[in-house]
Amino acid sequence: MRKQIVALAAVFCTLAVTLTGMPEAAAHHKNEQKVEKILYIPHDNRPISDKQTAEVISKLGYEVVVPPDNMLGSRTDLGHPDELWDWLKQNAQDADAAVISSDSMLYGSLVGSRKHEYSKKEVLERADRFQSFRKEHPKMELYVFGSIMRTPRSGEASGHEEPGYYRNYGADIFRYTVLKDKEEMEGLTRREKKEYDFLQRLIPKASLADWMGRREKNFAANEKMIDLTRKNAFNYFVLGRDDNAPYSQTHLESRHLAAAGQDLGKTRFQAMAGIDEIGMLLLTRAVNDMRRDVPFVYVRYNWGKGEFTVPSYSDEKIGDSIAAAITAAGGMQVKSPEKADLVLTVNTNPNGKTYEANDRANDGTPREGTKYFADIVSDYVGKGYPVAIADIAYANGSDNALMDELRDRGLLFKLRAYAGWNTPTNSTGFVIGEGMMAEHMKDEAVDDLLLTRYLDDWAYQANVRNTIARQLTWLRGDGVYGSLDSKMGAVATRSERMLTRFVEENLPPIDSLAYIEVRFPWNRMFESDIIHTADEPVDISYFPKK
User: Fold this and answer.
1) Coil, helix or strand for 141?
2) In what order do the strands lie in the sheet with 332-334?
3) pTM
4) pLDDT tens-digit profile of 499-527?
5) Is the distance from CB of 231 to CB of 223 less than 8 angstroms?
6) Are domains 34-164+205-292 and 293-440 of this chain identical in fold?
7) What DSSP element (H or E) covers 83?
8) H/E run at residue 342
9) What domain of life does the native source organism fall in (predicted)?
10) Is 189 in a helix, a strand, or coil?
11) 302 Cβ contact partners less than 8 Å away, ≥ 6 residues apart
12) What integer best gives the mean pLDDT of the chain?
């Protein structure tokens, strides 16, 4: 009864926005013959953004329709916004809901939002199309997410996804914006003022003007999207903060944009840390709205700093990020596991620091807090609670010490969800969405999704990737970590062999792991597409591409 009451209250809170779509959604829910169709336009074609996210929702029996990969943006192809608008119109007639990246529709992709050459006028005209689309499809549930441009700490940290000058002046631009943000928030010391003036002279004026000009277009577009939310163009709009820091241009702009949408409330609009996980969160929200469900989530941290940890690549406490993600997914945080539909356990380091998964220290040796956290997980699983793990002690891969504990205790496939990929907020957001959806899945589907994360986050990101990165100079051909080029085949073959060995040593016998194929869709080692089958590998297309 409690969930029904909360769900009813949530419906009334958003009644003004969703009224036109409610009767149809309810009718579809009653008609078991009807397979509800959700359009999903991610912000690029990386496996985690695209097929791995869509796969979670498809496991529930929904038809998730995604544009073809070659229409979505990549690392080098900035995307095709006008073609995506055509695709959306062609596929919208019989869709029940749509989850859409505004970056894809305005610039072509997430990378496109940083490197495009469109005028401000062109970008804002594309934003206006959302209002026209809403008028043409007034009954469709529409969820949109965009990004506030990131502020990488250096040219190396940018991964060559910023304009060329960022490779030379990225660290200086980052520091310039740190001081700019701090000046606005609390003022600068005399020494910092001198540094600020020096950086303005050091960074080429044309480069700084171009970078800030790109941000101004992005800021204006995001203001426009907030205004469209106010005009009921969307059921829900989220602005994600890509890689940023407590002081940075991203943090500065987020403060102003959050203030611009403050009147909408969190039931309509949020500005939150992270970006790559938001597609998962809004697909989860779409399903929860269709089911008239408000999942209850209990969050338990490792001892120490816990919820007050400010993880790397973020500008806020992880407790705040998790609360925002639960709200974005259509859930509610509760204070006891007995009332929860999902118990989210968060593997933070007691000292509040976030390390990198490719650190040599991530060798499986238990650290302070490792066994304590494993005991927490074991206790909740033993009591029959549906448990998920957000593994964020390390960024960009799993905590090997924790995973060894879970393996040795037989807990790997007793969880309902797990994530340890990319930034900490990417992991927490993704696992919240997947964990909420696992409640409605068969055990086989849950295990399949866990296996995807174990192969990617644990086997590849935290182990194989790091080993082969140190061996790259041994391999024939031309290529480096960020651009594999002619070394790609050798890296793929070596990755497949090492993954096969890792699986034999760490995972139970699973038929679908008989053959493992590894691809690198962005021509770099950071992302992998791991395909595993019981038979000889074939070209797999997981979702309909119309």
Assistant:
1) strand
2) 332-334, 296-301, 342-347, 387-391, 417-419
3) 0.89
4) 999 999 999 999 999 999 999 999 999 99
5) no
6) yes
7) helix 81-91
8) strand 342-347
9) Bacteria
10) coil
11) 346, 347, 348, 349, 350, 369, 372, 373, 376, 393
12) 91
Which helix (H) or strand (E) segment is 395 a member of?
Answer: strand 394-395
Going from N- to C-terminal start, the domains of the chain cover 34-164+205-292, 293-440, 468-533
Are the beta carbons of 429 and 274 closer than 8 angstroms? yes
Structure confidence at residue 242 (pLDDT): 78
Write the single-letter amino acid at 72. Answer: L
Tell me the CA distances in angstroms from 453 to 389, 418, 420, 434, 462, one per residue in order.
11, 7, 8, 11, 12
Instruction: Estimate the share of the chain in helix, then strand, then coil, as percent rounded to the nearest 5.
Output: 50, 15, 35
* Least confident piece of the model among 76-80, 384-388, 401-405: 76-80
Q: Which of 226, 229, 233 is nearest to 134 (CA)?
A: 233
In 3D space, the residue among 146, 148, 153, 180 whose CA is nearest the CA of residue 167 turns out to be 153
d(CA 96, CA 196): 51
pLDDT tens-digit profile of 280-334?
Answer: 999 999 999 999 999 999 999 999 999 999 999 988 999 999 999 999 999 999 9
Average pLDDT over residues 165-180: 93
Q: In 10 A of CB 128, how many CB atoms?
A: 12
Contacts of 27 (CB under 8 A, 6+ apart): none
Contact at 8 Å (CB) between 151 and 31? no
Return the number of other C-beta atoms located less than 10 Å from residue 55's C-beta. 18
* Residue 484 Cα to chain centre, angstroms: 24
- What dihedral angle (degrees, nearest 10) is formed by the CA atoms of 113, 114, 119, 123? 20
Round to whole Å and give the CA distance between 296 and 439: 11
Query: What's at 290, amino acid-wise?
Result: M
Instruction: Indicate whether 16 pLDDT > 60.
Output: no
CATH class of 293-440: alpha beta
